[in-house]
Amino acid sequence: MASSQEKIAVYSLSDLKHTSDDAIPTYLNSISFTQSHFLADVRLGLSYLAFAICAACFLWDYKLGFEDTKYYTAIAVALYAIINSSLSIWIWVVERGIVYVGTNKAGDWISIQSATKKHVPIYNLTITVTEAGKGGSSRETKLSRPFREWFDETGAFVALPFQQMFASNVDIVGKADPKRVVVEKKKGAAAKLDTSKTMDEKLLNLLAESYVDVAAEDAGTSSATPAKGTKRRGKKA
Amino acid sequence: MLSALRNPRQAASQIITFGLILSTAFMMWKGLSVIADSPSPIVVVLSGSMEPAFQRGDLLFLWNRNFFEETKVGEIVVYNVKGKDIPIVHRVVRKFGTGSEAQLLTKGDNNVADDTELYARGQDYLERQDIIGSVVGYIPFVGYVTIMLSEHPWLKTVALGIMGLTAILQRE
């Protein structure tokens, strides 16, 4: 569910991130990408294995007492420690915040990693695309966008600008969903400029933009809501 | 929460997050047990029989291995009496013989008489195997929480319920 009906608290960064993370598979799977659950399955497998060892240890300890089972308990504790450390390594080194891995019908491979910085309402995406038949070379696209582009002020998720972001910036998504590609030369340039700036500059820009928006709305010059997203981006240029 | 029900992997992952918190705590406890060779390496003092050394609610750390020397007179030990499952913290005051067959007598510092009254029917002394550890360290008062929990059992249910709910409902 893209949870377009569910509203979240717009000041909760973790709600913003999780809702956005959940919307990625919903969108990509709907435009004929096939999601690979390998990372999550390994993580779940390790977790449940560790839990099973602990449950077994609890049972034999409960039924037979400590003295008779202490060597098995020692082995179980060692195994549990090993599995739990591999689980941590898997989460920190292998998964690294990857929220989506999938392939399209042509065999192109896409992996999307998301991250936020504490108390900064900006969604940082690293999208890695490996196209089929190019010898395994991959391209990385980094996007940093404020959450307000796809959450309205009441906390409802607005799918269109979110999906347009992927379709316009990642060519294999754009090919699969040409309707949502927003072609705007200036915008592309601005986005590139954005990545070279520091976080402070970006924040200042965002602040400045929001003031301009308010001013424009006060003056009664703003158009209907649907055009809002594109308008804002237009101003950035 | 509702969206988690529609996505089995996400639901499984939220459940196991809670499961791993519980199991890690349990395995750390068991690890400590194995290292100290004691079924219960940390105990809470429940009575004032060892005052002024230990007060009610003190947390004691036990060690149950005799690497260098045997358990000797003057050591504070925790022992279980057959048929009662409440461990008792008292001091060893007499010892006859050596090795695992040695006969030990204990007494609470604050008690008038020695422990022969407390032992099981027909038991006049302790053996090494009755002891689950010697006290090697303590933290005053922090164990009072567990005394509260055992005297008011409904607090346990409430605490466990709150922990479970927050772990399942939160996605941090």
TrEMBL record, chain A:
The keyword Transmembrane applies. Residues 218-237 are annotated as: Disordered. GO terms for biological process: protein targeting to ER; signal peptide processing. Its main location: endoplasmic reticulum. It is a multi-pass membrane protein. It is found in: Endoplasmic reticulum membrane. It comes from the Eukaryota. InterPro entries: Spc2/SPCS2 (IPR009582). GO terms for cellular component: signal peptidase complex. Keywords: Endoplasmic reticulum, Membrane, Transmembrane, Transmembrane helix. The chain crosses the membrane at residues 42-60, 72-93. Belongs to the SPCS2 family. Component of the signal peptidase complex (SPC) which catalyzes the cleavage of N-terminal signal sequences from nascent proteins as they are translocated into the lumen of the endoplasmic reticulum. Enhances the enzymatic activity of SPC and facilitates the interactions between different components of the translocation site. This is Signal peptidase complex subunit 2.
TrEMBL record, chain B:
It is a single-pass type II membrane protein. SUPFAM superfamilies: LexA/Signal peptidase. Its EC number is 3.4.21.89. GO terms for biological process: protein targeting to ER; signal peptide processing. Keywords: Endoplasmic reticulum, Hydrolase, Membrane, Protease, Signal-anchor, Transmembrane, Transmembrane helix. It comes from the Eukaryota. The keyword Plastid does not apply. It is an enzyme of class 3 (hydrolase). One of its GO terms (cellular component) is signal peptidase complex. It catalyses: Cleavage of hydrophobic, N-terminal signal or leader sequences from secreted and periplasmic proteins. It is found in: Endoplasmic reticulum membrane. Component of the signal peptidase complex (SPC) composed of a catalytic subunit SEC11 and three accessory subunits SPC1, SPC2 and SPC3. The complex induces a local thinning of the ER membrane which is used to measure the length of the signal peptide (SP) h-region of protein substrates. This ensures the selectivity of the complex towards h-regions shorter than 18-20 amino acids. SPC associates with the translocon complex. Catalytic component of the signal peptidase complex (SPC) which catalyzes the cleavage of N-terminal signal sequences from nascent proteins as they are translocated into the lumen of the endoplasmic reticulum. Specifically cleaves N-terminal signal peptides that contain a hydrophobic alpha-helix (h-region) shorter than 18-20 amino acids. This is Signal peptidase complex catalytic subunit SEC11.
